[in-house]
Hints:
Blueprint: H1 3-21, H2 25-29, H3 37-50, H4 56-68, H5 74-78, H6 82-91, H7 98-116, H8 120-126, H9 131-138, H10 146-156, H11 169-177, H12 184-188, H13 196-208
Helix pairs in contact: 1-13, 3-4, 3-10, 4-6, 6-7, 9-10, 11-13
Amino acid sequence: MTAKKRSATEQATARRLLEGFGTTFCDEAGITLRDTPAPLWQLLVLSLLLSARIRSEIAVATAGELFDAGWRTPKHLRESTWQERVDALGRGGYRRYDESTATRLDDAAALLLDRWKGDLRRLRDEAEGDPGRIADGLQEFDGIGPAGANIFLREVQAVWPSLRPLADDLVLQGAEAAGLPTDLEALGALVSGDDFAGLAAALVRIARDPGLLDG
């Protein structure tokens, strides 16, 4: 196969995966992601919830309960009581971790407000846009480890174009399984920049369930 044909085949594969499996966690949680403080906070909350050993469907549903309760900014979350947060987490099905997470959410809101004035763009700028340093900053929030930081970065590149294309090991594992290049520049060239976060989401699903490729 010539390089031109290989590229066309890879682009077609990337487009098929994007259309079939490219729904991001933000999409699932009803977060309209923008480069503004409130949706970035919502992505942080979602990343924290997804960091626990719990099904992603439950984490997404729980994020919806928190946002429906009106806690779409760190300031509004800090106005809630611990018991109100426990109850919302329970309604979302997050019962195994509800009490500890109720505390972690308040701690996260307090840290974001105190250190970065409620704006995660300040964290990005403090890190000079370096993904590794941004990940380190994110892990200062109790409950967010390397996996949670990776989730945040995979999704936020949709609105932080300076990060694109960004792919962690799980994305590259999915790319290899799908027969796509694992070279970051080549992988990023398969879709338009705005679509890369969706492609990354699709490739994570493939990495976790290669059987999806048979569908």
